[in-house]
Design goal:
Layout lengths: L2 H26 L13 E6 L3 E4 L5 H21 L13 H20 L7 H5 L2 H14 L1 H4 L23 H10 L1 E2 L6 H19 L6 H19 L25 H10 L4 E2 L3 H4 L1 H15 L9
Helix pairs in contact: 1-2, 5-12, 7-12, 8-9, 8-10
Length: 305
C-alpha cells in the first residue's frame, strides 16, 4: 500500500468517527429545551385524525450506548490496526493468524504421519491405520478423476483391477502417485493415412479377440509390426516402462469400439497423471499409493485401466 492510500484510509476512518460523534452531539444538544415538545415540533405525520408523530431525541441511555460503541471502535482500531500501514498495538493480522494456525495444523499432521515415513508400500497396505489414512488422502485428492470407489471413468484408469499400464508393483504404483505419469500416444494420421489407420484399428481389435475383417486385419498387422510394435511389442502385450498398454486383453481406457480405437490411432492420446508428491508431500502420497495397491493386490479381475 502506498503512502497516499495509507493516509487516505486514516483520514477516512478519522472523518467517520468524528462525524458520528458530531451527529450524536447535534441531535441531543437541545434535549433540555425539548423535554416537553409543543405541537409545532411534530413530524407532520398524523393518523386517525389525532395521532401525531413527535420528533423527540433518543433517550439518554441509548445515546450513551452509541458513544460507547464509538469509543470501542477507536480502541479496536488501535489494538488490531485498520489505519493504513499502522499494524496496531497488538500486532494482529489475518496473515499472522493463518500462519499460526497452519503451523499448528502442520505439527499435528507431522505427528500423525511420523510412524509411516519411509515404510514400504506393501507394508503400509497391510496396516489398517495406514490404509485408512491413505483412503482419506485418496478421497480428497484422487477421487475427482478416479471416482470415490477408485473404479475410474473413460480416460481415467480403474485402480481396483489387476491391469496396470505403468506396472503394478508397490514401487511402480508409488512412483505413479508421487512423481506422476505422462502418457503419449502419438498421432499416426500423417504416417498411416485414413486407410492405414482403419487397417491398424481392425488388427488391434483382432489382437483383443474381437471379430474383425481378416483382410483388413492382415494389412493392419503389417503396418503394426513396422510402426506400432516398437512401443506395444510385436505381440501387442505392451510395455509398462513406456506406459504402452496391453492391446490383447479386454481392458480399454477410452473404449473398445472401432471408432474410438481408430480415433486414437489417427489423433493420438495424451493422458496425464499429476505428480502428487509436491502437492500432498511424499508420506501422504505413499499412503495413497498403499491404499490403491491394497485395492488391487491379488485381484485377477480386469477393468478399465
Amino acid at each position: 500500500m502506498s503512502a497516499f492510500w495509507s493516509w487516505f484510509i486514516i483520514a477516512l476512518v478519522a472523518i467517520n468517527i468524528a462525524g458520528c460523534l458530531w451527529l450524536l452531539w447535534y441531535t441531543s444538544k437541545r434535549r433540555g429545551a425539548n423535554a416537553h415538545l409543543p405541537d409545532s415540533e411534530t413530524t407532520g405525520h398524523v393518523w386517525d385524525g389525532d395521532l401525531s408523530e413527535y420528533n423527540k431525541p433518543l433517550p439518554r441511555w441509548w445515546i450513551n450506548l452509541f458513544y460507547l460503541t464509538i469509543f470501542f471502535s477507536i480502541g479496536y482500531v488501535a489494538w488490531y490496526g485498520g489505519l493504513g500501514h499502522y499494524d496496531g498495538i497488538g500486532r494482529w493480522s489475518s496473515a499472522g493468524e493463518h500462519d499460526a494456525q497452519k503451523a499448528e495444523a502442520d505439527a499435528r499432521l507431522a505427528e500423525t504421519l511420523a510412524p509411516f515415513e519411509g515404510v514400504a508400500i506393501d507394508q503400509l497396505a497391510a496396516n489398517p491405520q495406514a490404509v485408512a489414512l491413505g483412503q482419506s488422502v485418496f478421497g480428497n485428492f484422487c477421487a475427482t478423476c478416479h471416482g470415490s470407489d477408485a473404479r475410474g471413468a473413460r480416460g481415467f484408469p480403474n485402480l481396483t483391477d489387476a491391469s496396470w499400464q505403468w506396472g503394478g508393483s508397490p514401487d511402480e504404483v508409488a512412483t505413479s502417485v508421487i512423481h506422476g505419469r505422462q502418457a503419449a500416444m502419438p498421432a499416426m494420421e500423417a504416417m498411416l493415412g485414413e486407410q492405414g489407420a482403419t487397417e491398424v484399428a481392425v488388427y488391434v481389435q483382432q489382437l483383443a479377440g474381437m471379430q474383425a475383417d481378416a483382410g483388413l486385419a492382415a494389412a493392419g498387422k503389417a503396418r503394426f509390426d513396422t510402426i506400432c510394435a516398437a512401443c506395444h511389442m510385436p505381440d501387442g502385450t505392451g510395455m509398462a516402462a513406456l506406459g504402452a498398454p496391453n492391446l490383447t486383453d479386454d481392458v480399454w481406457l477410452y473404449g473398445s469400439d472401432f471408432d474410438t480405437i481408430r480415433q486414437g490411432v489417427l489423433q493420438g492420446r495424451a493422458g496425464m497423471m499429476p505428480a502428487h508428491g509436491p502437492i500432498v508431500g511424499e508420506t501422504r502420497a505413499r499412503l495413497a499409493a498403499a491404499y490403491v495397491w491394497s485395492l488391487s493386490h491379488g485381484a485377477g479381475a480386469a477393468g478399465n485401466d
